[in-house]
Specification:
The longest helix is centred in the middle third of the chain and has 15 residues. The chain is 9% helix and 44% strand. Strands 20-21-22-23-24-25-26-27-28-29-30-31-32 form a 13-stranded antiparallel sheet. The protein is built from 9 helices and 32 strands.
Length: 684
């Protein structure tokens, strides 16, 4: 099963809040003032004879709900002869103004089609109040939610610009603020939800004034009635099905799945083992000397899910410095606590403190000083009380160093998948393939990373459109790679990472970097100790690969260069990054990223890129933007700290294109060993 699909069916959360067919929390089509719990991710698929709608909604803050929606209709005159659907992409944001109290309702304000074409544009002010098993909703709507209108638009008193409204914004992708809350009249909408006692069923009824003018003008759907009714079945705590009769003329089916991204991270529990102290000498592996504390510590540390890289003893301060990598524990504080326990069992008794250097993705990020513990060998220790956080350090002139370079070359074989969303010919392109990969440690801290894909099944033959971009086709020819390179080399490159000092980290690489590009490049990150700000520079020279994804290349080559700034905000684990520089299509501009990261490893974010390419030259969408997801596989029972990373774009064009994973990523790579991660754990 695809990892992302599996994740969508796992984590449980409180039910009974319903996502409308538009993806936003609501009734059937109209929104309510309700919101999910903070951090809840909702996916919705609504199927009707007139239109299909797919949405993903994220509760970005306790008071902010954000939705991306993809809708398609086959019943328009312009699509009937071709057999294709018309597809529209748009965003929605809903803000809570007032929380429900004993006497007052919950109130929210929202904007639909925030940066879309305007075809589904609407704004609303809505209130919801619960009365026992009933939940009542009443709202005022602008745009499509105004219908023919019930009241004059109160904003007309502010200015005449609020009297007129356009329902088509051309290419879309740009903020349509000139249309917000405009129109001569506003409409009234609302509805009821009734939750049955002792049954996972609720009954829905709504009044929706939307007259579907755009659809009916195109020869499609025209509603007979503003009334719709439905039944919602909570099939599982995080999955629901809704059956609806809409506008007195069509049936609808809606599937909703929810995921709690703030769920607590599962603790990694190593397989119970007998300490090397208690093993017979002939039971230890060859090369492990039971008389040497580093050997026995190394043996137990590796069996516990950590990697001990080096040690340095200082008899004057009675301190041992231990350089450690973490391959299994979801939480770095948990890993350090385990290292503290094992060191207390193995290191000579005259040592009073341990300086544990946390090496994250090859970078020595922080040093955690912990005292020696008075533990017996069967005790578990999970607390970091008494610890202090010091800057990372480069461990030189070590007393002991582990040699990880071995003659064997481990292979990793796994079933994987790739998806291409939102193409008008094929809204969901997919491939399932077997990926054979390896990461080999080489001398001088080098790694050789490679992977090859063997196709199992795909539907890429349904892609028929070629790129019409007037820019160099640095990304818009992606379909050619999917069709001609179904089997092919994913990557094969040398990678070198390290830390030059406590606050200066670097990375260099060369080879086949990704499906579309080979090249070489590097990045240097300056991360001051305890600072929420950091800065980096990165650069690449790349050459575009041939479409069959073998070792040949096309004629196109270029270089990219970026200066990046990062801010670890103190607000709800949100981080902000700004990258300014030259992109793959030789355009210049900046990319703004906003991501939210939870202690369990979940990461959700948005990015937007604006360059000197005009909206007309960029094409549909106007500028590059999209969503980022990182799903930790540990929450699904998988071992290790691996994660499923995905970027979803409304549309792939050439403007603002970067090398993914090789431009300003160092700061994100070391985030899980950041100062505030340890500081919060110590304060608990």
């Amino acid at each position: 099963m695809n990892r992302l699909a599996f994740a969508a069916a796992v984590i449980l959360l409180p039910p009974m809040l319903h996502a409308s067919d538009y993806g936003t929390t609501g009734l059937i089509d109209v929104p309510t003032a309700r919101m999910q719990a903070d951090g809840v991710f909702t996916s919705t698929a609504a199927i009707q004879s007139s239109i299909n709608a797919y949405g993903i909604t994220y509760q970005a803050l306790p008071w902010l709900e954000a939705t991306f929606r993809y809708s398609g209709s086959a019943n328009l005159a312009s699509t009937a002869s071709t057999g294709f659907r018309y597809y529209d992409r748009n965003y929605e944001a809903k803000f809570r103004l007032l929380e429900e109290s004993t006497y007052l309702p919950q109130m929210t304000i929202g904007i639909r089609d925030l940066v879309g074409t305007g075809k589904f544009g609407a704004e609303y002010l809505v209130a919801s109040k619960q009365f026992g098993q009933w939940d009542a909703t009443l709202g005022l709507g602008w745009g499509r939610l105004a219908g023919s209108g019930h009241l004059y638009n109160p904003f007309r008193v502010i200015g005449s610009s609020f009297e007129n409204r356009e329902f088509d914004s051309g290419l879309g992708g740009e903020l349509s603020y000139g249309q917000f809350f405009s129109g001569k009249k506003v409409g009234v909408f609302g509805g009821l939800q009734y939750q049955l006692k002792d049954y996972p069923l609720s009954v829905l009824a709504e009044y929706n004034p939307d007259e579907y003018v755009w659809e009916s003008t195109g020869g499609g759907f025209t509603p007979k009635s503003p009334l719709s009714f439905g039944v919602k079945w909570q099939a599982l705590p995080n999955i629901s099905l809704s059956f609806t009769r809409q506008h007195g003329q069509e049936w609808g089916l809606t599937l909703q799945a929810m995921l709690a991204t703030k769920a607590a991270a599962p603790k990694y529990v190593p397989t119970p083992f007998v300490s090397s102290h208690d093993m017979a000498e002939d039971a230890l592996p060859a090369g492990i000397n039971p008389e040497k504390w580093y050997d026995t510590l190394l043996y137990d540390v590796e069996r516990s899910g950590l990697l001990l890289r080096s040690a340095k003893a200082d008899d004057t301060t009675r301190t041992v410095t231990l350089e450690v990598s973490n391959s299994q524990y979801p939480s770095w504080p948990e890993a350090v606590a385990k290292m503290q326990q094992l060191a207390s069992l193995h290191v000579p008794s005259d040592i009073a403190n341990f300086d544990i250097v946390a090496q994250e993705n090859g970078h020595n990020v922080h040093t955690i000083r912990v005292p020696r513990l008075a533990l017996n060998r069967s005790e578990r220790h999970e607390s970091l009380s008494g610890a202090s956080i010091l800057p990372g350090r480069v461990v030189e002139e070590t007393s002991y160093r582990t040699n990880f370079v071995k003659s064997k070359y481990p292979l990793n074989v796994e079933l994987d998948s790739r998806f291409m969303f939102f193409d008008p010919d094929n809204p969901l392109g997919y491939q399932f393939y077997v990926k054979v990969g390896s990461s080999v440690d080489l001398p001088m801290g080098l790694k050789l990373k490679g992977a090859y894909a063997f196709d199992l099944a795909n539907n890429f033959d349904k892609f028929n459109r070629s790129s019409t971009s007037i820019l160099p086709h640095v990304r818009s020819d992606a379909v050619k790679y999917l069709k001609e390179g179904k089997n092919g080399l994913e990557r094969l490159y040398l990678d070198k990472r390290g830390s030059l000092s406590s606050n200066l980290h670097y990375r260099g690489y060369a080879g086949v970097l990704e499906s579309m590009y080979s090249g070489l490049g590097g990045e240097i990150l300056y991360q001051p100790y305890q600072s929420r700000l950091a800065f980096a520079v990165s650069g690449n020279w790349v050459k575009q690969r041939d479409y069959d994804r073998k070792l040949d290349h096309l004629d196109y080559s270029t270089y990219t260069a970026f200066a990046s700034a990062y801010w670890a905000t103190p607000f709800n684990n949100y981080d902000v990054a700004l990258h300014v520089g030259k992109y793959l299509a030789k355009d210049y501009g900046g990319t703004l990223e906003v991501r939210r990261t939870f202690h369990n490893g979940w990461q959700v974010g948005l990015w937007a890129t604006k360059t000197n390419v005009s909206a007309e030259d960029f094409g549909e969408g106007s500028f590059d933007k999209g969503m980022f997801f990182r799903i930790p596989l540990g929450i699904l029972g998988s071992s290790g700290r691996s994660a499923y990373n995905a970027r979803i774009r409304p549309i792939q064009r050439d403007g603002g294109a970067r090398l993914e994973g090789f431009t300003g990523d160092l700061w994100w790579d070391i985030r899980e060993a950041r100062y505030d991660v340890f500081n919060e754990a110590i304060a608990q």
